[in-house]
């Protein structure tokens, strides 16, 4: 799966906020539980205050954990955002589709090896229809995205593919799981999508191709579907093992793409080095982090947070490749960072009433 672009500055504010939560939680817990006479007092007012203090501590700890899960997704998106820069370093004879197929093959193999070594690979009582559905979604994203970019241009193809995913994920989560997106999700998604459009349009000529637009929408739906299905599976299946099996099946599905082009470039030092980075870091490590984040973040919020990917790619292009951005592009980056900050800092509920399992 090849997607563009990420986020940095919100990490510092998130980490600082986490440190405050940790410090205040530890301090409050120490004060509360070190005084046994306070805990066992017969004074009703003190017991009431004790319950209120405990509840506030629990709420703070829960909020802190929710923000850390958001951070996992953001770091994953950062790794995804490096793929464009790294692919630019690959041999000229490499093709995006073959590069993507190798990415899934190397990443899936590494993920499967990791869970096998750690003895997490227990597939008993798994929901295999969901596993296969997630694998198909992941396998479909790659050709749909690259074909869309080829047909309708980088700006339109990327904005529609990446931008439609949060909207589709939020709508599907609302319709299927009966989880209405929170107000913070709407605000963050609008800000991030507006920023994404400003970042990619850049005042250049926009070329609209109906087939390309439909394929871009298909790519967005594929990523949204993968995220929602993965979220459902992780309620009953180990996240890392599930991701490993899904990616290995996806790699097998995309293997035929390798026989349609010359793949001798992977035997060169640059070809092997870039492929290993894309597979081990931008796929294996990134999707393990994404899976961990999904255990504590709603699917719709996770897809919105993944918009940090295009942000990362743009900033890497500026600072490491020497690309120049216009004022509108910088404004787009600012809006995307604001949207990501809103969604990552928003408080989350422990449970959502009426939520149903996908089956």
UniProtKB/TrEMBL annotation:
PANTHER family: EAMA DOMAIN-CONTAINING PROTEIN, INNER MEMBRANE TRANSPORTER. It is a multi-pass membrane protein. Belongs to the EamA transporter family. NCBIfam families: 2A78 (TIGR00950). The chain crosses the membrane at residues 68-90, 96-116, 128-148, 154-177, 184-200, 206-229, 241-259, 271-290, 302-321, 327-346. GO terms for cellular component: plasma membrane. Residues 70-200, 211-344 form the EamA domain. It is found in: Cell membrane. It comes from Bacillus spizizenii (strain DSM 15029 / JCM 12233 / NBRC 101239 / NRRL B-23049 / TU-B-10). Pfam families: EamA (PF00892). Keywords: Cell membrane, Membrane, Repeat, Transmembrane, Transmembrane helix, Transport. Its main location: membrane. This is Transport protein YwfM.
């Amino acid at each position: 799966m090849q997607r563009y672009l990420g986020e940095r500055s919100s990490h510092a504010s998130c980490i600082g906020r986490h440190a405050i939560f940790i410090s205040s939680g530890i301090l409050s817990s120490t004060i509360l539980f070190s005084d046994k006479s306070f805990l066992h007092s017969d004074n009703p007012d003190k017991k009431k205050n004790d319950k209120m203090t405990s509840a506030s501590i629990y709420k703070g700890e829960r909020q802190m954990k929710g923000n850390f899960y958001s951070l996992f997704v953001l770091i994953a998106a950062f790794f995804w955002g490096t793929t464009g820069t790294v692919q630019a370093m690959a041999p000229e004879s490499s093709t995006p589709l073959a590069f993507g197929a190798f990415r899934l093959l190397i990443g899936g193999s590494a993920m499967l090896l990791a869970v096998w070594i750690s003895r997490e690979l227990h597939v008993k009582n798994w929901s295999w229809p969901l596993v296969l559905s997630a694998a198909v979604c992941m396998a479909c994203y790659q050709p749909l995205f690259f074909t869309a970019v080829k047909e309708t241009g980088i700006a339109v193809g990327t904005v529609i593919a990446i931008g439609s995913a949060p909207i589709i994920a939020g709508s599907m989560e609302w319709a299927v799981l009966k989880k209405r997106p929170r107000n913070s999700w709407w605000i963050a998604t609008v800000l991030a999508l507006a920023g994404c459009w400003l970042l990619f349009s850049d005042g250049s000529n926009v070329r609209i191709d109906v087939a390309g637009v439909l394929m871009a929408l298909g790519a967005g739906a594929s990523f949204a579907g993968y995220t929602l299905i993965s979220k459902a599976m992780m309620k009953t299946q180990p996240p890392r093992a599930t991701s490993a099996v899904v990616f290995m099946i996806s790699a097998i599905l995309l293997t035929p793409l390798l026989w349609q082009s010359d793949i001798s470039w992977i035997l060169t030092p640059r070809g092997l080095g870039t492929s290993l980075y894309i597979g081990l870091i931008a796929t294996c490590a990134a999707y393990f982090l994404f899976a961990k984040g999904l255990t504590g973040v709603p699917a719709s919020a996770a897809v919105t947070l993944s918009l940090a990917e295009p942000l990362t790619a743009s900033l890497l292009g500026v600072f490491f490749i020497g690309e120049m951005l216009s004022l509108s592009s910088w404004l787009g980056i600012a809006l995307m960072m604001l949207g990501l900050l809103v969604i990552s800092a928003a408080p989350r509920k422990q449970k959502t009433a009426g939520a149903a399992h996908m089956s």
